[in-house]
Structure formats: C-alpha cells, structure tokens
Amino acid sequence: MNKDDLKRWRLILGHSSQDDLSEMGACRLSDDQMAMGEALAAIYDDTDCGESAPRSAGFGISSPALAKWLGDIRNYSQEDVVSVIQQDAIERKGLTQLLFEPEMLKSVEANPQLAGTLMSLNGQIPERAKETARMVVQAVVDKIKRLLEQKIRQAVMGALNRNEHSPIPSVSSIDCKWTIDRNLKNYQPDLGTIIPGKVWFYSRAQRSNNWAIIVDMDQIGSMAESVVYGSVTGSSFASLPALKTHVVAFDTEAVDLTEIRGNDPVDMIFGSQLGGGTDINKSVAYCEQFITDPSQTLFFLITDLCEGGNEAQLVRHVRDMVESGVQVICLLALSDGGVPFYNEGLAKKLSRLEVPCFGCSPSILP
Fold it and tell me: What letter does residue 362 receive in the DSSP assignment?
C-alpha cells in the first residue's frame, strides 16, 4: 500500500487509526488533510467528546463552528460529495434546528435531499427563515428544471419521424447515418474527419394534444426526494397547454396539488406533508375521476408500494385502469439514490398486469 492510500485510509478511519497505519508506512497528513479529517470527524465520529476521543468534534450550539465546517467541506470536496456529507450532518448529528437560521440556510448546498428535509419541516420553520427556505428550494427547482424541462417538452410536443426529413435544424434531430453517408466525399485526410457540406434532420411528428397526465405521489418520509422531483416534473407537464395535468400527493388522504397550487413546483413542494400513513388504494381511486379518455391517459404512480390500505382493492383498481386503456407506470423512486426499497410482492402483482415497476433517474424519465 503506497503513502497516498495510507493517507486516504487515515481520513476514512479517523484519528484512532493513526498508530496502526503508521506501522505500515509514513502516514503523516498535510495541514489541508488534517483540516479535511476534522471536517469529516464532526459528522462521522460516533465517540462522545472527551479526552479519550481525540477524533471527536461536533458543533454543539455554535453557529460559527457550523459555518466554518460548511466552508471546509466545500474546500475539500466536490459538489456531489458535499451534498452527501451535508445530508449526513442533518440526519446523524441532529443539525435540523440550525436550518431554521437564515444565515445557515444561505450557506448550505442546495440539492433535492435538502429540499426534501425543508419540506418535511415546513410547519416548523420560523417566519424569519421561511423566505430563505423558499429561496433554497427555488434554487433546487431551477436546477432540476434546467435538466428536465426541455427534454419533457420535446417528448410531449413531438417524436422523431424517421421516415421524413425536415429543413428545420435541430441538434437533437440530426440523422447521423444519412448525413455521414452523403458526406463521405468530403472526408479530409489531413484532419482525419468528414467536413459535411450539408446536414440532414429528421422531421417531428406532432402528437395529439388531448393527452391527460396524472402524477400520483406518495408523501411518506422515505419518498422525499421523489416528491421533489415529481413536483418539478408534474409542473413541467402542467405548463404545456397540449396536456391536461393533475399532480396528486397522498398519505392516508389525497389532494390535487395542481388545483390548489397552480403550476408552481415550489408551492407544490411546500404543499406536500411528509410522513403519516399510506393509503395508495384510496389515492388511486381518487385519481380515477380525472380519467375521461383512458386511451389518452398516462398515469404515473410514484410510491414504494408499502400499502397501509386495502392491497387487494388497489390491485383491482389498477387492473381496471389497464383494461380500460390507461397507460400505468409505477415509479418505485424518482431519484438518483440508487436501488430503492419497495414492496417486492406488490410490485410483482402489478407487473403481472403489465404495469412497469422500476426506480427511475429523473434525467431518463422524459
């Protein structure tokens, strides 16, 4: 094991590993690495403070200490790593109360996990911090919209017609094979590439404008990130006049967020209330009122399928939807969080009804 590997293991294992790792080779950390180790220790050291715990850090009630820690993890970690450490700080060290301070909220890294935390604390956020909390969630929403909105618009407004070409240029519509075949004569040996004299583009076939989209989201706490992404996705659908969209959130009751929150995803997120029980069956039955033309309806059920209501009746409701022509898709998670936890037995029952059940990264949903 080389010196760099030893230093990485020292940062992972903490101060208590110093002596053992030193026996394997030189393991002296630089000043920057020591600062990084202290930043990690503040969150991942499970030892109580005291003389016997040299790695122990923690924040106590000191906001300045937290502000310095937030700066340190930004200095020494990439953005995606900062998001993970920051969320661990909230969950492992009980730093939720510090999110109620506007100065602290301005310092944290805005990400879907943090938006989900603020959503779950909506009723507890004091007046002095509400506007800052909204700004943080707005920043998360804007970031997601930049990622998804154009893709959703293209998916809804028109699909590629690969039988026809169009004079209208669009990078996403380039017919690469046709363009290359007809520009082989323009190959430049000195550059090792083709310089096309003309580029061909697929035309787009306009889709029917009477589709209905229903997004039905489980508000249980473990689905927080999915609710954030689902709200933004649903509001993007709602902004398109070609669609009739309903975004529904449920626990033991269901509510149509598009009716009471318009198409503002920030309002939708703060209109959700995480936690409580789960009655998927009641929510699916509630959504049936929005189905006027089953063959032109797409129903997204975003849930881990941990049903607290009548499971057999839920399966019957979904079967009736499918048999009537509704396209039903069950998203076990709408997040970048990897393989989700879900009720495997119920997922198999829905799959036998030809309802796809899978966890989905938001970027591939469109």
Answer: G
Q: Strand 297-302 to strand 211-218: parallel, antiparallel, or no bridges (unpaired)?
A: parallel
Give me the pLDDT at residue 330, please. 96
The structural architecture, per CATH, of the domain 211-364 is 3-Layer(aba) Sandwich (3.40)
pLDDT tens across 46-94, in order? 544 333 334 444 444 444 455 566 667 667 777 667 767 767 776 666 6
CATH 3.40.50.410 range(s) for the chain read 211-364
- pTM, whole model, 2 decimals? 0.64
Round to whole Å and give the CA distance between 162 and 141.
Answer: 34
Say yes or no to pLDDT of 291 above 90: yes
Selection from 143, 103, 98 nearest residue 118 by Cα: 98
Distance CA(276)–CA(142), nearest Å, equals 29
Which residue intervals of 248-325 are DSSP H helices? 257-261, 265-271, 280-287, 311-324
Type and span of the H or E element at 210: none
- The pLDDT of residue 1 is above 80: no
**Nearest one of 214, 198, 225, 224 to 258, comparing CA atoms:** 214
Beta carbons of 59 and 95 less than 8 angstroms apart: yes
Measure the CA–CA gap between 185 and 197, rounded to whole angstroms: 10
- The conformation of residue 111, written as its DSSP 8-state character, comes to -
Structure tokens of 204? 């787009």
Strand extents, DSSP E, 155-210: 158-166, 187-188, 193-194, 201-206
> For residues 251 and 219, is the Cβ–Cβ distance under 8 A?
yes
Four-CA torsion 205, 211, 217, 223, nearest 10 degrees: 0
pLDDT tens track for 199-249? 988 766 555 457 889 999 998 877 888 888 888 888 888 877 778 899 999
Amino acid letter, residue 171: V
Count the neighbouring beta carbons within 10 Å of the beta carbon of residue 79.
9
